Amino acid sequence: MKAIFWKELADHFSSWRFFIFMIIILLASMFATYTASQTIMDNSSDTESIFVRIFSASGDALPSFLWFITLLGPFLGIIFGFDVINGERMRGTLSRILSQPVFRDSVINGKFLAGLVAVSVILAGIILMSCGLGLRALGIAPDLSEIIRITLFFFLSLLYVGFWLALGVLCSVLFKSTIVSVLMTIAVWIFFAIFMSMIAGVIADESHPIDQYSSPDTFLAHDKLEKDVQRISPVYLFNEASDTILNPEKRTLRGLVRVSEVQSMVPGSVSVRQSLSLIWPHIVTLIALISICFVASYIKFMKEEIRAT
After folding, report:
1. Which of 21, 45, 133, 150 has the fewest CB atoms in 10 Å of its CB?
2. Are 166 and 290 in contact (CB under 8 A)?
3. Domain-by-domain residue ranges, the chain?
4. What whole-number distance in Å separates Cα of residue 135 and Cα of residue 96?
5. What are the DSSP calls for 200-257, one per residue?
6. Along the chain (309 residues), what's the average pLDDT of each consecutive run of 10 residues?
7. Which of 290, 283, 295 is nearest to 163 (CA)?
8. Structure pTM?
9. Torsion of CA 69, 166, 106, 6, to 10 degrees
10. Which of 239, 234, 194 is nearest to 250 (CA)?
């Protein structure tokens, strides 16, 4: 597995798609960070936890850094996973690899780990460069809690992109054609990113219809059901968890709350531990989704028949 891992990692770092996609994400993230820094400097008079806001604040011209990761992160995972197995099969090299003294599970394990490391390098690079740009623009260094929050945001991003990498590997094992593999993963992304919110709204409207005469309990039930259905989507899970980590003032995941509950809340920022207590189900769910996709691709690859071509 070690030999396959280093070989795949070298192929990733030397490929054109690695550099092209890294430049695209880097430029988009840097512009978003700069715009967020200008917005924070113009509109914010509170210096508490101001540095971490460069990742969640948006400007007039560009959306936030978080928005770009949510949008482009899946494609980063897909391009490193959609052809790891069927690409070797189409080139006729998979049977040659397995004819060597290499265990079959070492092939898929090494390829998945190499893709995950390549993704982590890209994410770490753009987050560190965005921190450097934000430090220069704001002139304020992050404190320890903000560094912890940025680190947690990196691991959340890695889990999010790792899910799409695992899904790409699964489609690469299931389908012999690389075109079908990439189209299937993109179709899944479109469903979760676009149609899932529509489906959640329809289900909530049918279960708890609301109008101007509806009671507060009906509005609360409608909002809760809509959010619960949207949490099936890994896109929504990542966006909600990251927004909670990057905004220390956020103390609940509910969209609508009663006035009495708001009045009982103590004003100010919450600790990192309190933010983690809100999003730990999101983290567990993302890890479970990665495990399901990888285990399914592992079992399928171990059992399928591979003939020399």
Report:
1. 45
2. yes
3. 2-303
4. 51
5. HHHHHHHHS---TT--HHHHHHHHHHHHHHHTTSHHHHHHHHHHHHH-TT---S-S--
6. 86 83 80 78 64 80 84 89 83 76 83 91 88 82 88 94 94 89 92 91 87 78 86 92 88 65 60 88 94 92 69
7. 290
8. 0.89
9. -20
10. 239
